[in-house]
Design brief:
Elements lengths: L1 E3 L5 E4 L5 E5 L5 E6 L5 E6 L3 E6 L4 E6 L4 E6 L5 E6 L3 E6 L4 E6 L4 E6 L5 E6 L4 E5 L4 E5 L7 E5 L4 E5 L5 E5 L4 E5 L5 E6 L5 E6 L3 E6 L4 E6 L5 E6 L5 E6 L4 E5 L2
Antiparallel strand pairs: 1-2, 2-3, 4-5, 5-6, 6-7, 8-9, 9-10, 10-11, 12-13, 13-14, 14-15, 16-17, 17-18, 18-19, 20-21, 21-22, 22-23, 24-25, 25-26
């Protein structure tokens, strides 16, 4: 697990919560992603600075970009990273800092995710647009989204994209961009994460409730933690654990068989 705080503390931990590495050199940390293999991670420092680090939390390079960074993603094995800016542009670069593509979009993109089985990138704006691109920048498809998007999660094994669409529930799409349906839950979804296996989806609402659903939309588990509002949720790769970062600085873990 990679966890960071806004005051610059970055930790690598086991799923049991034991700290493996810790660094205090990531000041003004605002965004953080780690590749599936655990070899590389990328942090946004402030609003426009990128830092690539290895699994010892050693910074390999740092670079400032033009504009405010609005989204960040890293490929499964860490070979590529992508970031979007408020100038309606997506950049794809290698972990050696070589730019692969610059993609101009109609709207600034707020959500990015690499696919695992194909060298493609999914991008979604806060409102109005969701797209799929090749890493070289060619657009494969684009869909107009008629609701606000708080979060994007991709289950490539399940062939699904999930959007936390606030008052419109959780919107479900296929990897071809076609809408498959939606989930209605008790609350306003603001964040969504899914597992690569087991067909599980976790949803965080603005009312500080968390729901665990299957891919058919049936609720399997729910909890209200308004006493310590969640800031972020993440699911373990096997779908058997859910991690919740709260506003007090706690990292909670729930597990299922």
């Amino acid at each position: 697990i990679a966890a960071g705080t806004r005051n610059g503390r970055l930790c690598l931990m086991t799923q049991a919560g034991d700290r493996i590495k810790e660094s205090l050199s990531f000041g003004q940390l605002s965004r953080l992603v780690m590749c599936d293999s655990g070899d590389f991670g990328v942090a946004v420092l402030g609003t426009n600075s990128l830092a690539l680090f290895d699994n010892n939390l050693k910074t390999l390079w740092q670079s400032s970009v033009t504009g405010r960074i609005t989204a960040l993603a890293i490929s499964p094995y860490g070979g590529h990273l992508s970031f979007a800016t408020d100038s309606a542009r997506i950049h794809v670069v290698t972990n050696e800092k070589k730019e692969v593509a610059t993609i101009d979009t109609r709207r600034p993109m707020d959500h990015l995710s690499f696919l695992t089985e194909e060298p493609h990138l999914i991008a979604a704006a806060e409102f109005g647009q969701m797209c799929r691109y090749e890493l070289k920048g060619r657009e494969i498809w684009t869909e107009h989204i008629h609701n606000n998007v708080g979060d994007l999660s991709v289950s490539e094994g399940g062939k699904r994209l999930f959007l936390a669409a606030f008052n419109h529930g959780v919107q479900v799409y296929g990897l071809d961009g076609n809408q498959l349906g939606s989930y209605a839950i008790d609350g306003i979804p603001s964040r969504v994460v899914c597992s690569a296996t087991r067909g599980r989806v976790a949803v965080l609402t603005l009312e500080n409730r968390i729901f665990l659903l299957n891919f058919e939309g049936s609720i399997q588990w729910a909890v209200d933690i308004s006493q310590d509002p969640p800031e972020h949720i993440a699911m373990g790769p096997l779908g058997d654990r859910l991690f919740v970062a709260t506003s007090s600085g706690c990292l909670l873990a729930a597990s299922w068989p």
